[in-house]
Amino acid sequence: MLALAPAGPTSPASAEPPAGYYDSAEGLTGAALEAELHDIVSAGVTTLTYSEVWDGLQQTDADPDDPSSVVLFYQGTAHPASDHGGGVDQWNREHLWAQSHGDFGTSPGPGTDLHHLRPTDVTVNSARGNLDFDEGGTENAEAPGNYRDGDSWEPRDADKGDVARAILYMSMRYEGDDGWPDLEVDDATGGSGPRHGRLSTLLGWNAADPPSAFEQHRNDVVFELQGNRNPFIDHPEWADEIWG
Prior knowledge:
Layout: H1 30-42, H2 50-60, E1 62-63, E2 66-71, E3 78-80, E4 91-95, E5 117-121, H3 122-128, E6 132-133, E7 138-139, E8 147-148, E9 152-154, H4 157-173, E10 184-185, E11 195-196, H5 199-208, H6 213-226, H7 231-234, H8 238-243
Parallel strand pairs: 6-9, 10-11
Antiparallel strand pairs: 1-2, 2-3, 4-5, 7-8, 8-9
C-alpha cells in the first residue's frame, strides 16, 4: 500500500518539473514531439495496484482546506476521504479514459494510472459511464453543470481542461509498445476500440480552461507517487503542437 503523506495543506509548492525533464522535447512538433514525450513519461514509472489507487487519490485530490477530505471531480465538493467504496453517496475511482475504450480493466498499467483517475461520487460516475467527452445533453441533477446525451458527457466548466489534458496524456502515454493497447484520441463520439473523443472539443477545452493551481499541484503529487508527469499540464500549448 502507498504510504499516505502527513496531513497538511495541499497548496501548490512548486508546480514545476525537475530541471531538464523536458529538455529532449524542446523545439519538436507534431509526431516527433508526441514520440519524445512518450519516451520521457514512460521511463522510471512506478506502476500502482488498483488497491493503491485509493491511497493515491487521497493524496492527489486532497481538499486544500481539509486534507481528511477529497475534492469530488465533476462536482467540486469535499467528501470524507475514508468514505470510499461502491455504496450510494460514497466516492469511487473514475477512469476519465473509460476502461472499455481499450479493455484494459483495472490491472496495473493504464487502469491504475493516476493521471486519469479521479475521485467521483458513485452515482455520478455511473451516470457518466463509458461515454466520450463532448458538449450538449441533459444536465445531471446530482452534479449541476455536467451534461449527458446518448454518446457523450460534458463536464462542468471548471473540469473541462482537466479532462482534456488527462485524455491527451493517455493517448500519448500508451502507444502499444508495453503490452497495453495503443490508445488514440480521435474526433468521434460513440465509437469502439481503444479510442476516445472528441479531439476537437478537448483541444478547445484545453485552451479555454488552463491548468489551475490545484491541477498543477496534483501533477506534482502524481510525479512523487508514480514517477512521471502530465506534460500537457506543464505545457498546455503542446496539445496544439501535436494535434492542432
